[in-house]
Amino acid sequence: MQQSSNKALLKAALLALLALIVPTTASAQSYQCRAPQVSSVPQISPDQRPRVVPITGYTLALSWSPAFCRTRQDSRSHRVQCSGDNGRFGFVVHGLWPQGSRTWPQWCGSANRLTPRQVRENMCMMPSARLIARQWAKHGSCMVRKPETYLGVTKILWESLRIPDYDRISREDGLTAGRIRQAFADANGKSWQASHVGVKLNRDGWLEELRLCYNNRFRPTRCDDRRYGARDERAAKIWRGL
Predict the structure, then answer these.
(1) Reported pTM
(2) Per-domain residue ranges for the chain?
(3) Per-residue b/e over 13-29, b at no fewer than 16 CB within 10 Å?
(4) At the fourth CATH level, which superfamily is domain 2-228?
(5) How far apart are CA 122 and CA 109, in angstroms?
């Protein structure tokens, strides 16, 4: 019953989201991308127990690809994203994650399978077939019945975003986590505030990820401490890698 309630709420929220979002030519995209051919979908096995809880919001996690690929240029498993053969990427989608009040739902299970075509169509947004398969199995199955719906919602959110020129920002003196999140909020209009943007830095202060916080109607909302990440005053660095 609870999963059905979650999915009904998601459907209503999606309709509201579609009415609000106007795609922009300055939206968040890869620097360049050539989607590879995909002949099969990786098989994913749960690594934790299933957990079904009410959905109170969502996180869209964006991975900073230059930092991710810094030590993975020769990795066979990350060839599409990191070799340069299929293009070069700035931010890419790590995943769209449903949130609960104290924890998050995961591995809810679905009889519906991803197809190679669905994977290929989303490789410029999430440049790893295994990543796409895992995100659907772990997170998407707790939101909707069909993988194409999960990927469609993710793409709507992704294509609504404007990404600041973080290459330029990376050269600023005294760069902080607060500057990174404020730059994103400033680029995305009145709906976004700095408190809606989580910033994940590694132990050495390099940017790894932005975590964008939404309520259960996909409106930007304040991040809790877990998702907010680095405090505003923490020194930060952005690996350009280009």
Answers:
(1) 0.89
(2) 2-228
(3) bbeebeeeeeeeeeebb
(4) Ribonuclease T2-like (3.90.730.10)
(5) 21
